[in-house]
Task: inverse folding
């Protein structure tokens, strides 16, 4: 099965040793609105897990309850088996990086980083050494005398991360810390952040609405919808084997097709795809399947399983070409091939035939066979 290179780079052997952070039946309501609906989640020691979803899905509320900034209406939070549901934030041994960074505007970078150990009564020499170590670790050692307004967004983000780590947390919580940065800086910082937490071996729970960010950084991704976790799995599982139409549509670009169960497989647009259907599906039953654009392959017009149409649009994406195909019965398909392939010369209105890599076809909203 295909897997993106940045997924592979982000995977490592995680010594979970039993769950480090456990959320059981956690719920939060605001009046008649349920923001978090009885969520269960386990995170292993040293694991990097991302909560992914649109605004309003409950991911930040869930994170704030874990941090202790919001009280749950039900459920509990365990850290290494200890119930911390009603402990004060400072007693939870968790570091928090806010979306807005929340740096003290009247304090320098050095003073911001030193805040937690100073409040804990650490000796001055120890604090100074810790600040210098963290500043070098996040590459801001030349900025320690600057105030937040004198730093770029990326530099402020590094200070906020160092400040969270200065308290020596067992668990690191991050709430969309890169949402205000441009794409180039985000790509650089996410690689640095992942490398840093790997070196420290710190358990990390990260919140984002950016699916590329989630897939590139995480050991596992929890896709949230309406206060619940719709699916949790590795980036490879989430991308290639979504369990529902929502996840398939939310993650990446996909072809989601309605068809019918037929003798020998799945029938769509006068084509029959030889696909093993689960037991209990009757012939003629309406089904929904997903196939990613990179798994829609060029073929001959008479090939078994071919879907024929005309090219509506060709989009150059650098390494790939994305082709929108207009098929009979108002069916639209998206296919992708390398930009150096024979498709490089495709023009609008050209006749074209494609068929799926059947090993990558996913039946949605039903058990996968």
Result:
């Amino acid at each position: 099965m295909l897997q993106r290179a940045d997924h592979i780079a982000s995977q490592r052997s995680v010594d979970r040793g039993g769950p480090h952070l456990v959320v059981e039946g956690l719920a939060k309501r605001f009046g008649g609105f349920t923001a978090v609906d009885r969520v269960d989640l386990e995170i292993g020691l040293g694991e990097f897990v991302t909560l992914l979803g649109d605004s309003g899905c409950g991911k930040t509320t869930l994170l704030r309850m874990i941090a202790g900034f919001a009280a749950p209406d039900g459920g509990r939070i365990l850290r290494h088996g200890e119930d911390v549901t009603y402990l004060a934030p400072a007693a939870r041994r968790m570091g928090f990086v806010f979306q807005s960074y929340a740096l003290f505007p009247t304090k320098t970078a050095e003073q911001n980083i030193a805040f937690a150990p100073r409040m804990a009564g650490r000796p001055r020499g120890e604090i100074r050494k810790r600040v210098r170590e963290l500043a070098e670790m996040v590459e801001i050692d030349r900025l320690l005398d600057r105030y937040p307004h004198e730093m770029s967004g990326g530099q402020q983000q590094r200070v906020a991360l160092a400040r969270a780590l200065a308290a020596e947390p067992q668990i690191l919580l991050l709430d969309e810390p890169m949402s205000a940065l441009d794409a180039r800086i985000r790509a650089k910082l996410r690689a640095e952040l992942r490398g840093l937490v790997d070196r420290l071996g710190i358990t990390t729970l990260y919140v984002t609405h950016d699916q590329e960010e989630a897939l590139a950084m995480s050991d596992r991704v929890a896709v949230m919808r309406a206060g619940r976790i719709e699916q949790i799995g590795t980036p490879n599982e989430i991308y290639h084997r979504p369990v529902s139409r929502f996840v398939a549509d939310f993650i990446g670009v996909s072809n989601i097709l309605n068809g019918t169960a037929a003798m020998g497989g799945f029938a769509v647009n006068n084509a029959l795809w030889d696909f093993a259907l689960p037991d209990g599906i009757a012939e003629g039953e309406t089904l929904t399947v997903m196939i990613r654009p990179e798994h829609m392959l060029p073929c001959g017009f008479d090939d078994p399983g071919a879907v024929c149409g005309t090219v509506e649009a060709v989009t150059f994406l650098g390494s790939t070409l994305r082709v929108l195909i207009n098929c009979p019965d108002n069916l639209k398909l998206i296919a992708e091939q390398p930009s150096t392939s024979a498709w490089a010369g495709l023009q609008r209105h050209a006749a074209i035939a494609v068929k799926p890599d059947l090993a990558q076809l996913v039946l949605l909203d039903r058990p996968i066979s």
Summary: Confidence is low (pLDDT under 50) at residues 1-16.
